[in-house]
């Protein structure tokens, strides 16, 4: 399968961020906990190199809890602050607020020494499309999200969303695109639903998923679909079709229907809590 992205959009977004980054103290980067490296844009490390950095392992509710811990440890070992979240829920928002202040403690101390009091920390939220940025901002900022210049005909300048007296978010979140360094990155992004399904071959995608699950989560397909897992992925798909009544004319298994079902059930977490890439071993 071949995956593509759009370099034109990417260049524009990057230029915008290079401007915006001068105004901020902290970069909050959302990644998808199921594929934390493949869902990053590598340029963000360069863009944010002199800033405090917070990684939010989002959609952690869908990922393998053990791997969530491993990824948290990995990013912490690289000098990031890390919080794992489900951006739809408010329960972690207080923790995030505290971690933001901790991440910016040097700046707060610098301000204090200069006699500047109560200057809020300014943060920019970045992430690749579909990673949950809007959801996070809505949950985190809540009602504060209401914007004033957002009416037709009103030129919208840069807007700061004041969360409280301590934190402001820049309301033009930088959108960054992933880099398809290798086809596995494209495959993982396709699996989590970050690439339009219309341009994907779902049948092939489901076979790739089955293969990954056989390798990393043995037993999971068996317990979900009551299939014999120890056979070719296409045979597992065929049995799944039969078990789930995906049958077409002539009493033949409907592979495409079964493929969509497996992909949907993976994405919604019904097959299980699954992580599709693992932290590189660090020394
Ligand atoms: P974006 O701005 O980064 O492009 O992403 P957005 O917030 O639109 O989120 C993309 C999808 O991911 C949404 O689902 C959203 O509900 C879901 N989502 C965001 N964060 C989490 C999370 O932590 N856990 C889970 N399980 N889902 C999350 P959607 O299907 O596109 O919309 P909807 O049907 O939920 O409204």
Automatic annotation (TrEMBL):
Domain CP-type G stretches: 10-178
InterPro entries: G_CP_dom, GTP-bd, GTP-bd_ortho_bundle_sf, GTP-bd_ribosome_bgen, GTPase_MTG1, P-loop_NTPase
Residues annotated as signal peptide: none
Localization per Swiss-Prot or TrEMBL: Cytoplasm
Family assignment from sequence similarity: Belongs to the TRAFAC class YlqF/YawG GTPase family. MTG1 subfamily.
UniProt function note: Required for a late step of 50S ribosomal subunit assembly. Has GTPase activity.
Record protein name field: Ribosome biogenesis GTPase A
């Amino acid at each position: 399968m071949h995956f593509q992205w759009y370099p034109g959009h990417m260049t524009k977004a990057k230029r915008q961020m290079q401007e915006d980054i001068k105004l901020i103290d902290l970069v909050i980067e959302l990644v998808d906990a199921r594929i934390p490296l493949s869902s990053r844009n590598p340029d963000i490390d360069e863009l944010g190199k002199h800033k405090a950095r917070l990684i939010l392992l989002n959609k952690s509710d869908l990922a393998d809890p053990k791997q969530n811990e491993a990824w948290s440890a990995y990013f912490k070992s690289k000098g990031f602050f890390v919080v794992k979240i489900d951006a739809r829920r408010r329960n972690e928002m207080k923790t995030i607020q505290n971690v933001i202040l901790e991440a910016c403690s040097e700046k707060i101390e610098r301000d204090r020494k200069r006699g500047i009091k109560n200057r809020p920390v300014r943060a920019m939220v970045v992430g690749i499309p579909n990673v949950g940025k809007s959801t996070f901002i809505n949950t985190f900022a809540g009602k504060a999200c209401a914007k004033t210049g957002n009416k037709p005909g009103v030129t919208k300048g840069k807007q700061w969303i004041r969360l409280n007296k301590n934190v402001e978010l820049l309301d033009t979140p930088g959108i960054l695109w992933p880099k398809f360094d290798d086809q596995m990155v494209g495959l993982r992004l396709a699996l989590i639903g970050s690439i339009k399904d219309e341009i994907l071959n779902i049948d092939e995608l489901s076979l790739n998923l089955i293969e990954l699950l056989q390798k990393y989560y043995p037993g999971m397909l068996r317990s979900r679909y009551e299939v014999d897992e120890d056979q070719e992925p296409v045979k597992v798909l065929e049995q799944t079709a039969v078990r789930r009544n995906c049958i077409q004319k002539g009493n033949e298994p409907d592979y495409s229907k079964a493929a969509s079902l497996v992909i949907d059930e993976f994405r919604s977490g019904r097959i299980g809590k699954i992580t599709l890439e693992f932290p590189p071993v660090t020394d």
